[in-house]
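User: ok so my PI wants both of these folded by tonight, can you help

Assistant: No problem, let's get them done. Here's the first:
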Amino acid sequence: MRDTRESRLLLALLVAVAFALITVDIRGGEQSPLDGARHAAASAFGPVEEGVAAAVDPVGDAFAAVRDSGDRSRRITELERENTALKQKLGSDARNSDRLRQLDSMLKTAGRGQYGIKGAQVIAIGAAQGFSWTVTIDIGSDDGVKRDMTVINGDGLVGRVTTVGPTTSTVLLAGDPKFTVGTRMEKTGELGFANGQGDRSLRVELLNGKAVVHPGDRLVTFGSSRNKPFVPGVPVGEVTRVEPAGGGLTRTLQVRPFVGFSKLDLVGVVVQPPREDPRDTVLPPKPETPRPAPTVTVTATPTPSASDTPRD
């Protein structure tokens, strides 16, 4: 429409009519004469509005989902991070609990034997200087460690120190084929020498070929001159098999070591030997074997009948 005098007059007239209709509608309230026209318009345009709303609502929901997806993604990421941290904490607590158990056991062993020890952690395992069964620990000469010191843990004899650096040391394990330690049998005191056999049991040669030994008997270290490389009384292992004597000068035993060499973690280097030989006192007490309950046999005695009673 062009901007002319007539168009302006028409626009002013339409505005005046609109205001008049609004005034009439407001004053009429529910009895407004325009109420019928309004209902008719609603009936005519209502389905169109519902169709438009139905078409538009999914789009609005999609926009809302996109808007909220960032918040949900961040929350999921936070929950995953919290879950990972919780798992790490639980794993750490379990490991710390196991280490506390190892430390407590080692301190009890050192206390029974009156050994002065320096605690250490195994930080490497593998061949070193031609030895196939060695571990590296995280203490050295700066901590007072010297060559040919005894190494123990809570279960017993681990090995001996072979090489010492300022902050680390190499330990030859008792399972190494080149390892030899003097042993003493529990109670009987029979002496012998134990040799490593790799991942198999220790082989012990008793000096007395006629010694009476049974599976389950236990051995400790005999000790060395000036307590190097071995202090006395350290638990070594338990007899699993006694080889036939065969009239030889020695008696051969197969001994299961108390220490699990494949799962070493915390160990102790004996930097101060005991004042007296502890002999068997470092060995833990053997579990008591339950005694079988006595069997009571009850024999029923038949009661004589009246016919068997003698008559006068």
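One down. Here's the second:
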Amino acid sequence: MNLKRIAVTAACTSALLSSLLAPAAVAQGQNEANPGVAVDTDTPSAREVAEFWTPERTREALAHPEPLLKADPKRGLDRKPSSGRLAKPVSVDAARPTSDSPAARTATLQTAGTEAAVAQEIAVAQEVPYSTSIPNVVVGKLLYQKPNGDTGHCTASVIVSDTKNTVWTAGHCVHTGSGGAAGWFSNIRFIPGYKDGQQPWGEWVEDRKYAPSSYTEGGDQLESDLAAVVLQPLAGYGNLQDNIGGLGYRFGGETDYADAFTVGYPGEGYNRTDMTGERMMYCRGNTEDLWWWVPTDDRVKMDCDMGKGASGGPMFIGAFNYNPQIIGANSHYQEDATTGKRVNDDLISSLHDLNAANVINAVNDSA
């Protein structure tokens, strides 16, 4: 029996459901049909992004993996639950590439490893075999420029959407976490299946970005460190999802999942010195409530020693059912208040519930 789930009301009114399903046009600032979603449509053209990313800037970004956020243990103790919960989880299946896409014609279908080889928990991250092949290639590097001019990189993954050109990541991979419109990152490009400097399926550049306003205005970690970036179709190739497929998703109030994976490009790790950020790595295990005794905090954790650079990487289920679905995004870790050092191998995601559903609904409404 989940005592915490009994203690937390998960009500969702018919009016709320109506608002989730209502159509809307994309607008700068706030999405009217999906309340609490901030939108940035003031983005550079594909040509401007290409001109920005000189070899020198690319090397600089790759040398600066984005740190995970530090979990604030007080954040869940002094707040009320979110303004709403999904009445039931929203579940969308994964997508495979279309049979006539260039990628599909040359695809090698591989999983993150054989089921027998990873039957036990893997908390010490290992390299993803065949990271440049479908379906692993849906995960890639996300490069960006911050408002202060600094560059860096996170991890992102293609998520099924009506746009067929959307990736899912952490909020802190696209926004500073304060300042509203002034906090958006720019010159974003996504490199699926990146490995050792290679770009097997090209580069895809941003068109617009979405994140919960509770993150863009206040940096909320509990339910808001998540974001979607809609990319521009690539000349000669069309839509990203048609070419390499995409992860489905399952968003709701659940925290405990069996046999989950998390994937990213870590440039460091907990008690690790061998991570360079140049190769895709993964962990496998069960997820659970970070602090089950705090009824207003439903963050999701799993044991994984990946660190900075893995920010934004997907936590997903269904890898061996051929239906991988995102349930979270790598967000933050716990540190010792005295030493400032990471205290364990817990990798933490904001709860993907109403805010996550509102963000992907806003993306779909814009298609």
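Residues 1-28 have pLDDT under 50 and may be disordered. Helices lie at 3-7, 14-21, 46-52, 55-62, 102-105, 213-216, 240-244, 354-365. Good luck tonight!
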